[in-house]
Amino acid sequence: MDVFNQLGELALGSRLKRLSDQIMRDGSRIYRDNGIDFEPRWFPVFYTISKKSPRGVTEIARDLGVTHAAVSQVARELLKKDLLVAVRDQYDGRRKLLSISEKGNILLPEIKEVWNDISEAIHQMINEHQTHIIDSIREVERSFEESSLHQRVAKITQERCMDEVDIVDYKAEYKEYFKSLNYAWINKYFELEELDELVLTNPDKIVKDGGQVLFAKLNNQIVGTCALIKIDKDTYELAKMAVAEEFQGRHIGKKLGLSAIEYSIRLGAKTLKLESNKKLIPALNLYRKLGFVPVCSDHHKSMYQRANITMQMNLVP
Length: 317
What we know:
The protein is of the alpha+beta class. The chain has helices at residues 3-7, 12-33, 43-51, 57-64, 68-80, 102-127, 133-146, 149-163, 175-189, 194-200, 203-208, 252-266, 281-290, and strands at residues 55-56, 84-89, 92-100, 165-169, 212-218, 221-230, 235-243, 271-276, 293-295, 309-314. Strand 7 (235-243), helix 12 (252-266) and strand 8 form a beta-alpha-beta unit. The longest helix has 26 residues, at 102-127. The chain is elongated.
């Protein structure tokens, strides 16, 4: 039983590694059969330098799309085997340039014959199948260049986490969550102010005055909240956003923010503003991603001592 066949795409990296290891093992045997002291892992670096030299490690790494460290390691092995020589760059004494050595140049015609044989054998293997693996790999590599696996997984994870969260309107039974969630983050970074007490103990007033208090529910548990406070008929403030610490990192704040923006549009708002503190870097990054931009607030003095940045979003074109 081949587990990789069962795992499908999930085992792509491991499967390609297995195939690569098999090619490398066979490559080592092929070089030995031809009496050549050479390792398959040296090929890309040695070949690149044979086509153009002298060359620096940084240039080679860039051309091969691999790390500087990976090229340096192979270069050290090739230098030890006397297949390369290194000289100081006359324009930059800190930089070494690599070239094929006299021994390497003697070996090159012989090794090129082996490369041609290997290329022909792989070509035959590929042509035994309808799918051209090189073209397919090239397309996959292009996809990775456009968006890495890490970026794609992060996006899928974010969407999944956000889908698991429900955003609900204010109910009297959620009143204590509005207070406790906000008390937690304010006391962690700042000191509770008199206005905090007034707002957090009276969420009903926010709703009564034309705003709304939203809550994030995960598995029927309240894990986050934020408020939309009406300033005037055209302007609302996004305030008192909080997510329980144990549930942070699940993009709950982002879903709360997006829901608040949608809700303020339904309320007829033209501008959505917020106040924050410059040391709350993750929060500010979230606000920027949501579309808020810093605005000059010299003419406006916040009622909160901790607030030292104002941001806003225009909701109409």
